Amino acid sequence: MRSTLDELMTELAELKAFVNSIAKVNSALENHDDSVVKTYISIRRRFDYAAFAVALYASFEKFIEGLIAAFAQLESRRLEYSKLPEGLKKKHFSQTVKMLERGRIGEGRYANLTPVNVVKNLFECLNGTMPYKLNDAAIVAHDQNLRVKEIDELFAAVGMEKVSNSVRQADDLVKWHCNLNGLRNAPKKVPAITIVNRLNDIVERRNEVAHRGGNPDNLPAPEAMSEDINFIENLARSLFGLVIGRYLKLQHTESENRIALKLREGPFEKGTTIVVDAPSHRLFVGQPVFAIVESTGARWGRIQSLKDNNTDVEEVVPGANALNGIGVCLDFKCPKKNKQLFALAVDDDLVWAPPEEKDPR
Prior knowledge:
Blueprint: H1 2-30, H2 35-78, H3 86-102, H4 115-126, H5 136-139, H6 148-156, H7 163-166, H8 171-181, H9 192-212, H10 222-251, E1 258-260, E2 263-268, E3 273-276, E4 283-284, E5 288-293, E6 297-308, E7 311-313, E8 315-316, E9 326-330, E10 341-344
Antiparallel strand pairs: 1-10, 2-3, 3-9, 4-8, 5-6, 5-10, 6-7, 6-9
Helix pairs in contact: 1-2, 1-10, 2-9, 2-10, 3-4, 8-10
């Protein structure tokens, strides 16, 4: 799943670089001696925005579809087909049938599919075969552009209801809202209308470009384009956090691989340092750790440092005589009053980047 966010962040970084170049390129062209080049500036400006509007929406749509498909496939590894959410089974069946009826398998977005493989996957699902493979294209099928309503429906099909309400409380989206509006005190939730209007505007501008041939009215300034990128980036990170939270809860909170950490006090130092009881399993610097946040998914990262009796240590082994507990420094804020904090004995590379790489969040 991490790769879906990595890919989106790479594409958004390219879009940011493109937007940041617009004013500089236009300025250079304005001073050109050739009148043809000067005339080209206004044309270029229109088509620059057309490319931007289409690319921004396309990257977001691909991210949503990829994230949902990845989560559904992970659920299919964990559960028999019969035990998947009813909405997922219903959509998988009906949309697979529609794909076959339309006869477009092997074309367009279905170019990598064949009728034989699509039918084979559905048959093995219905037949109770283990392991089985879901048809991704059926899971993420949608007939409308991705506004709030459509996003809710896509996530609901994989068992995640009303994500548009949960995402309003997500750390990244709340921080974006505060920065945009100059708020000193963060609200508990971003207003629902803010997300609806922002996403609607991006969709409408993409549609305007698609239907008017790159000649939209009221071309936005590069600053407004940058704001659209920032919104999509933080909305995507927030939705990613919701999915990761569901995955971690289902996959790890009850697994043998997880180590429950019992908090004594904290968090301190802006929420990143806690004190826990001496663990029954080994803790070490760089270890993956996560906190389940019921309303918004999860916060996750790695242990940055450990203290035993005020002494820095690289690891804490079972049976350590830590009368005052173990100090644990994290690279994320541990939610106050949080009781669901876990470390993992080994990495889960679907969520955690290797230690030498920068975490995409």
